[in-house]
Amino acid sequence: MTGWVFQCSATFGKGRSTPICCGFRSPLRLDLRMPNADSFRQSGCWGPAMANYLPMLAMLALSAPALAVSEAAAGPLSDAAAKAEKQADSGDAAGARETLRQAVSAFAQTLPFTIGKAVFVTAEPAGYAMYEPKQDSVFKSGETLVSYVEPVGLTWKDASTKGKLETRFTVDLDIVSPKGDVLATRKAFGDFTFTGYLRNQEIYATLTVDVSGAPAGDYVLRFRFNDINSGKSASVDQPFKIAGQ
User: Fold this and answer.
1) 92 CB contacts (<8 Å, ≥6 apart)?
2) Which domains does the chain have, with CATH numbers?
3) CB 169 within 8 A of CB 151
4) Rounded Cα–Cα distance for residues 193 and 157 (Å)
5) For a surface tag, which of 14, 193, 233, 234 has the fewest beta carbons within 10 Å of its beta carbon?
6) What is the C-alpha to C-alpha distance for residues 243 and 65, in angstroms, rounded to an integer?
7) CA dist list (Å): 123 to 119, 129, 161
8) DSSP class of residue 228?
9) Residues of the chain falling short of pLDDT 70
10) Nearest residue to 205 (alpha-carbon basis) of 181, 238, 176
11) pLDDT at 48
């Protein structure tokens, strides 16, 4: 493995590409594609997630009496679920959806920064949670690695545009041996800013790595997401194997 070389590039939300060269010895390409935050609000991707939030928050609201939680002590999610149910019962579906969305947005700010999901996929996802998982982590020689990664708990702040919010993060990459030796690395090869009118929780990264020329064997793909607004980082490891000829 000594002297392994790779080249990489990061592709941003609207196709802007920045080439990066790293000091090993065999072509390796990195693409990081992420949808623009404002486009998320217009894409219709909110629907599936809201369908998940409603039962969850409704269950919290219904469980409050059983847990003898007083109205004063009830949490914001329970309060939002109760309010949303009343709105839905009165025919205000749009209002109920907005209540839940705002509640989840605020609650997410209390979560620690972490990686919610990281899976190898068979092709670039069509959108948030719209992917086909690869059945195993074994790749043929020359086969491209495509990872779908969801960061959780990003910190948002006021954007320069009045009324909008903004989050920003960078992504580092390491390729590691099973023993923990770092074989290749690149710091902050991607720098991403999302701006919108809501703390968007449907953010994901599609990370494409070409390890053509790497010897057969076991490796670990390590991504480190750095939340610029909070100064916190979260890492995820994806073990994989390159099969022999």
Assistant:
1) none
2) 19-41+112-242 (2.60.40.3880), 43-108 (no CATH)
3) yes
4) 11
5) 14
6) 56
7) 11, 13, 35
8) T
9) 1-74
10) 238
11) 47
State which H helix or E strand residue 107 sits in. Answer: helix 93-108
**Residue 96: which residues within 8 A CB-CB, separation 6 or more?**
54, 84, 85, 87, 88
How confident is the model at residue 210, as a pLDDT?
85
Instruction: Tell me the C-alpha distance between 87 and 81, whole Å.
Output: 10
By CB atoms closer than 10 A (0-12, 13-18, 19+), residue 178 is: exposed
How far does CA 165 lie from the centroid of its chain? Answer: 18
Quick one: tokens of 41?
């609000």
Rounded Cα distance, 155 and 162, in Å: 18
Q: Could you tell me which residues come within 8 angstroms of residue 170 by beta carbon, excluding any fewer than 6 positions away?
A: 188, 190, 191, 192, 225, 226, 228
Work out the number of other CB atoms within 10 angstroms of the CB of residue 105.
Answer: 15
Confidence at residue 55, expressed as pLDDT on a 0 to 100 scale: 53
C-beta separation of 228 from 170 below 8 A: yes
pLDDT for residue 213 = 82
Q: Token pair for residue 76?
A: 């914001």
| CB 218, CB 239: distance < 8 Å | yes
Question: What pLDDT score does 50 carry?
Answer: 45
DSSP state of 171: E
From residue 63, how far is each of 75, 85, 97, 107, 115 by CA, in Å? 12, 14, 20, 18, 28
DSSP three-state, residue 243: coil
